């Protein structure tokens, strides 16, 4: 009797396990992409009602040897003088744009193409808030792209009042000093609610380089910039219960 030899070709059941790892990998990658897409939105929604406990910049500065001095206060306890000062100095169109000042972006691109050494910043308060909450300092295209993406979510999910509140409470104002309250207490010995127009202008003047410039010991350039900011503050109109009318 002739016996049939078993076939050496693997059957369908034997081939299925080879596909399983690839399928699991696709699911993992898909879940990671989904998390990257909606994760920031979920955190931003949380920050709509909860103060951020810490930011990447704070952790970076901590590793560099600085402490963390911060004291969250609601926008109602931050002087309108300081609100006007930062809008006047950092983002005059804050109440009119949806996160991006396209005219400033065009000017920055033009200066970059002309290879000018000093390219004027085009970052709005919303963009700076996105960077402060989620990203690291630097001027790479990767970081700027992430900043732009996060700004879209920020403007879509938060009112202007909350964006300004986050900005004023989380921004770096000196070595280990974050937020308006800690800065006002450190530099002028007053609460953020009691800042005078000139004190507020000095605080806004040092924002481009808070590790080097100090509002309580202004140099000639800082003092001159503060005078300019104080003059511009008169044109910033605040709403009754929000920064924007």
From TrEMBL:
The chain crosses the membrane at residues 28-50. Its EC number is 2.4.99.28. It is found in: Cell inner membrane. Its main location: membrane. GO terms for molecular function: pentosyltransferase activity; peptidoglycan glycosyltransferase activity. It is a single-pass membrane protein. Residues 1-15 have a biased composition (Low complexity). Pathway: Cell wall biogenesis; peptidoglycan biosynthesis. GO terms for biological process: cell wall organization; peptidoglycan biosynthetic process; regulation of cell shape. One of its GO terms (cellular component) is plasma membrane. The keyword Cell wall biogenesis/degradation applies. Pfam families: Transgly. Gene3D superfamilies: Biosynthetic peptidoglycan transglycosylase-like. It catalyses: [GlcNAc-(1->4)-Mur2Ac(oyl-L-Ala-gamma-D-Glu-L-Lys-D-Ala-D-Ala)](n)-di-trans,octa-cis-undecaprenyl diphosphate + beta-D-GlcNAc-(1->4)-Mur2Ac(oyl-L-Ala-gamma-D-Glu-L-Lys-D-Ala-D-Ala)-di-trans,octa-cis-undecaprenyl diphosphate = [GlcNAc-(1->4)-Mur2Ac(oyl-L-Ala-gamma-D-Glu-L-Lys-D-Ala-D-Ala)](n+1)-di-trans,octa-cis-undecaprenyl diphosphate + di-trans,octa-cis-undecaprenyl diphosphate + H(+). It comes from the Bacteria. The keyword tRNA-binding does not apply. Keywords: Cell inner membrane, Cell membrane, Cell shape, Cell wall biogenesis/degradation, Glycosyltransferase, Membrane, Peptidoglycan synthesis, Transferase, Transmembrane, Transmembrane helix. Residues 1-20 are annotated as: Disordered. Residues 68-233 form the Glycosyl transferase family domain. It is an enzyme of class 2 (transferase). HAMAP family: PGT_MtgA (MF_00766). Peptidoglycan polymerase that catalyzes glycan chain elongation from lipid-linked precursors. Belongs to the glycosyltransferase 51 family. This is Biosynthetic peptidoglycan transglycosylase. It comes from Parvibaculum sedimenti.
